[in-house]
Amino acid sequence: MVGTLRDLRRVAMISLHTSPLDQPGTGDAGGMNVYVVELARRLAACGVEVDVFTRATSSALEPEVPLGDGVVVRHVSAGPYEGLTKHELPAQLCVFAREVLRTEAAHPVGHYDAVHSHYWLSGQVGALARDRWGVPLVHTMHTMAKVKNAALAEGDTPEPDARVIGEEQVVEAADVLLANTDLEAKQLINLYDADPGRVEVVHPGVDLDVFAPPAGGASGRAAVRADLGLPVDAAVLLFAGRIQPLKAPDVLVRAVALMLHDDPSLRSRLVVPIVGGPSGSGLDRPAALADLAAELGVADVVRFVPPVTQRDLARWYAAASVVAVPSYNESFGLVAAEAQACGTPVVAAAVGGLTTVVRDGVSGRLLESHDPADWARVLREVVVDETERARLAAGARPQAESFSWDATAQQTLDVYRRARSLVRDSRG
After folding, report:
1. H runs (alpha helix) in 245-325
2. CA distances from residue 426 to 88, 136, 413, 414 in whole angstroms, order as listed
3. Does 158 or 4 have the greater pLDDT score?
4. Cβ 192 vs Cβ 168: under 8 Å
5. How many CA atoms lie within 13 A of 250 on its CB side?
6. CB-based contacts of 91, cutoff 8 Å, min separation 6
7. How many angstroms separate the CA atoms of 225 and 222, rounded?
8. How far apart are CA 275 and CA 228, in angstroms?
9. What order do you get walking across the sheet with 176-179 strand by strand?
10. Residue 200 burial (CB count, 10 A)
11. H helices within 358-404, ranges in order?
């Protein structure tokens, strides 16, 4: 008979390779950073303290940085501060794990009630902490090597075998695997042989206060465009995210070239902001997308914007006519959810979590293809047909409202509690 468990008081989150303090949109910072920040804050609002362990990337960083009431980011020194890629980080796992264990050892036994690791590198450390502390390990993959390698962009670098093996080990070790969507749950079961009884689905959320349609409707949107230096009557096709082959911004640029070839009159009012910075294998050729735009003769309509804060990103979404998400894979598709929350329709690839986030024909359009010609056709349909665009825009906000961080936190707490019961059953 399992005794009564006291309620959760404190959770250790592990986000080794990227800090929740980093600016999303460049380097390794993206949707996972937003996920960790928002989930930690909402858990704290529910009365659960959260310590987020991440690798220090500068000697100037404070060892502990508050991220709001009840959340602390703990910087762990493991390896040189700068210059390490994700592929080099496995060599630092032992040092990182030692420092995580040392932090817990400075407190009374039972300081943490659960470990929640993010990405496979963190899962390796989380498994060790779980065994040492006698608490459950809940793991979120965020992305999976086998899935990425099955949908590799042309010219992109496959994920190494070491990552595949590491992910398999984490899947075996975790008490509960937290999947973003039903599709991701099936991938864990079918590709990684995960026990279906240990896989739980909890959708990420959207900050529906930050990401919201501009006040004042059309006049508010016009004001936002004016602030961003965009013509009020422009057709704005927005891409937001890290610039790398996986995210496929080149598909959008090639589609724009075809749109202008087929309808030269669009050139006078088409604006294509690319909001984000190079990342992943895109760092090898940081100017490749700008070079492609020049080569295709569309550099005059493409506008490169460095990564921006969440509030500024919301303004770009609100200013856009359409947001394009042509990724080859997305575990969830936070950009699509955020754009829809701002009342902007989305044209997205029908891959991964995007098939959950975007409701085809209601809040946007889903494409089964990455052929620029197909993207040009659909983007032009939405841009030129004001009635169709308005119809999709009307469905965008209601679709986004089905994804709430408060709901995500409550469901995640339920997963933590179930995981604790599983551990107690298996060990006592």
Report:
1. 249-262, 288-295, 310-319
2. 35, 11, 20, 19
3. 158
4. yes
5. 18
6. 79
7. 5
8. 12
9. 64-66, 71-76, 49-55, 10-14, 114-118, 137-140, 176-179, 199-201
10. 17
11. 372-384, 386-400
Tokens of 428: 């006592």
- Whether residue 83 is predicted with pLDDT greater than 80 in this model: the reply is no
Q: Determine the average pLDDT of the residues in 161-171.
A: 97
Distance CA 116, CA 136 (A): 8
Best CA proximity match to 23, nearest among 339, 242, 205, 340: 242
* Cβ count near 309 (within 10 Å): 12
How would residue 1 be classed by pLDDT, with cut points 50, 70 and 90? Answer: very low
Q: Give pLDDT, residue 88.
A: 86
pLDDT per position as a tens digit, 202-226: 999 999 999 999 998 889 999 999 9
Tell me what the mean pLDDT of segment 34-48 comes to. Answer: 96
Q: Nearest-5° angle of CA 206, CA 250, CA 252?
A: 60
**In whole angstroms, how large is the CA radius of gyration of the chain?**
22
Tokens of 83: 């210059």
The candidate with the shortest Cα–Cα distance to 374, out of 248, 282, 266, 264, is: 248
Task: Compute the average pLDDT of residues 159-187.
Answer: 96
Q: How far apart are CA 327 and CA 30, in angstroms?
A: 14
Nearest-angstrom CA–CA distance, 384 and 57: 46
Q: Is the pLDDT of residue 428 over 60?
A: no
Q: Are strands 235-240 and 302-305 parallel, antiparallel or unpaired?
A: unpaired
Q: Percent of the chain at pLDDT above 90?
A: 82
Percent of the chain with pLDDT over 70: 95
- Taking each helix axis from N to C end, the angle separating 161-173 and 120-133, rounded to the nearest 10 degrees, works out to 30
Q: At what angle do helices 93-105 and 120-133 cross, to 10 degrees?
A: 40
**Rounded Cα distance, 356 and 203, in Å:** 9
3-class DSSP state of 325: strand
Rounded average pLDDT over 17-22 = 87
Question: Residue 366 and residue 340: Cα distance in Å, rounded?
Answer: 14
Contact yes or no for 344/258 (Cβ under 8 A):
no
The number of beta carbons lying within 10 Å of the beta carbon of residue 48 is 22
Distance CA(374)–CA(356), nearest Å, equals 21
Q: Is the pLDDT of residue 427 over 70?
A: no
Structure tokens at 226: 């004016």
- What six digits make up the tokens of 397? 């906000």
